[in-house]
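Reagents: none. Just compute today. Aspartate carbamoyltransferase.
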Amino acid sequence: MRHLLSTRDLDRAAAIRLLDIAEDMADTQLREVKKLPTLRGKTVVNLFFEDSTRTRISFEAAAKRLSADVINFSAKGSSVSKGESLKDTAQTLQAIGADAVVIRHGASGAPRTLANSGWIDAGVLNAGDGTHEHPTQALLDAFTIRRRLRPGASRGAGLDGVKVTIVGDILHSRVARSNVWLLDTLGAEVTLVAPPTLLPVDLAAWPARILYDLDVAIDEGRPDVVMMLRIQTERMRDAFFPNPREYSRRWGLDDERLARLGPDSIVMHPGPMNRGLEISSRAADSAMSTVREQVSNGVSVRMAALYLLLSGNTEEGS
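Predicted 3D structure written out:
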């Protein structure tokens, strides 16, 4: 795999292979000594132009558990804050011998620009670009769903027939975009639920059903998975809904809606959560919730992605 920029670049076989390798990585994390020598001598740079906690720490842990050398780069306090361009930053990383660059950037398309620019020879892994994509988040979500709903038969399996309902701020969510395409590739049935103002204009091209009523999605759709999304107020310049109380009443996963889910349904959230807005504390902390599992599984999935990026295997990928 040369780069990992978008879930749309993964066919079913490539996606399942990555999830299967993540299963192997997860098994190694149960051992007393979790570190593997796989990427010894390789240098991974975490290049974060946007703030992050879970994603950056997860990639750092993944690289270190594969014995790679890790350099963490934050735009704040760096030459970027003084006006340095992405090109100049990339050429600096090239000069220090980076083998892989994990990039999070506020501009949609920045990782692909870096990968195709010729400025750097390293493999590029998209850790979130603007409102475009977040492929490893979608992969860890699919990994979590597969482990919860297909226990004991995960390896080699897709998500055929699994009903996934994604709720909330679809418009600004790179997580939603990556998930829709990956889940469809793996055979899941995807439903999006949001107020009309929080849906993108290009939905006709998305492989998903669209609803505006969460109660209909729960009562008639009988979802196996309900994935709640954070309201991204930092990306909003207008009023997309009347007020937080009204949003929570109509589109939040509250205690009453939680009780109406099937006994084997699971509740997901990519974090960080706005408790009391898009999800109640009971829903976030219930036995149905996979929120903490998603964080833990993220390390295994990112170990798999870095392994495929740096192991020298070029059978598939961008």
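Strands lie at 43-48, 69-74, 100-105, 123-129, 163-167, 189-193, 209-211, 225-228, 266-268.
Action item: order primers for follow-up constructs.
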